[in-house]
What we know:
Layout lengths: L2 E7 L4 E8 L3 H9 L1 H4 L10 E6 L6 E7 L5 E12 L3 E9 L12 E9 L4 E8 L3 H9 L2 H9 L2 H6 L2 H5 L4 E4 L4 E8 L3 H9 L1 H7 L6 E7 L7 E8 L6 E11 L3 E8 L7 E10 L2 E9 L3 H9 L2 H17 L5
Antiparallel strand pairs: 1-2, 2-8, 3-4, 4-5, 5-6, 6-7, 7-8, 9-10, 10-16, 11-12, 12-13, 13-14, 14-15, 15-16
Amino acid sequence: xxxxxxxxxxxxxxxxxxxxxxxxxxxxxxxxxxxxxxxxxxxxxxxxxxxxxxxxxxxxxxxxxxxxxxxxxxxxxxxxxxxxxxxxxxxxxxxxxxxxxxxxxxxxxxxxxxxxxxxxxxxxxxxxxxxxxxxxxxxxxxxxxxxxxxxxxxxxxxxxxxxxxxxxxxxxxxxxxxxxxxxxxxxxxxxxxxxxxxxxxxxxxxxxxxxxxxxxxxxxxxxxxxxxxxxxxxxxxxxxxxxxxxxxxxxxxxxxxxxxxxxxxxxxxxxxxxxxxxxxxxxxxxxxxxxxxxxxxxxxxxxxxxxxxxxxxxxxxxxxxxxxxxx
Length: 327
């Protein structure tokens, strides 16, 4: 079991948990930064977590749900206060409702996570700061310590399997709910270049093409919140094309953007696309959460070969990154 000490300081209103791992520091860091990995251990075994959002940047947010054995769901969210890559991060941890909004009727906790290399591998020191003795006792009474110990006991398994995330780099689609899908892919290149490749029309025309045999004659990029974009693809050998349009709702370079997406000329509900770019040891973790109107729309899009088309595009993107992303 990785937890080596638990210290409760009633004067400072803190609880500090120290855990040691045989894995190297970068692997432990990535396990907390990658939503695909942290959700494998953040909740206790009987209440596994699903991270719908995980920004890992100052001013960002995380939103997760823990699902119990009877299907009951409990939600939480983080507000990211600070981050020093491979060293530490600080968040405000809230209980939340099903939309991800903080539940202000219950106490929040300021949590700091400090990472350090050791002779045997790595160490994590997490400190929870409470607003009052009553809040500390309330959360401890709700099972906070027991749940944290159970969750941390799962990290070793995740770390042992972490190599799979670097080796198997194909885009993967994970069902988050009846209406949400997360597509994740590690891109071999720095965050700034991956962001630029998503926001430069000349570069988009080179990689965002899906399967071979298509061109992108129209690429109107939304550059500011409130702007609309318009992308149109056509077959190389002629024939009928297709396109998408939408609005840029959020933009936080170089880590996050949120857009709507609707197919031009079709009466289908628009999707909500949340793109997050996070630095990891192998390059940039690209995470795209797509929210559909209903489960039928979700399944129809997945059945169209969306993920394989995205993988072909991401392979081209890595080729551009490998050539330093010259326009």
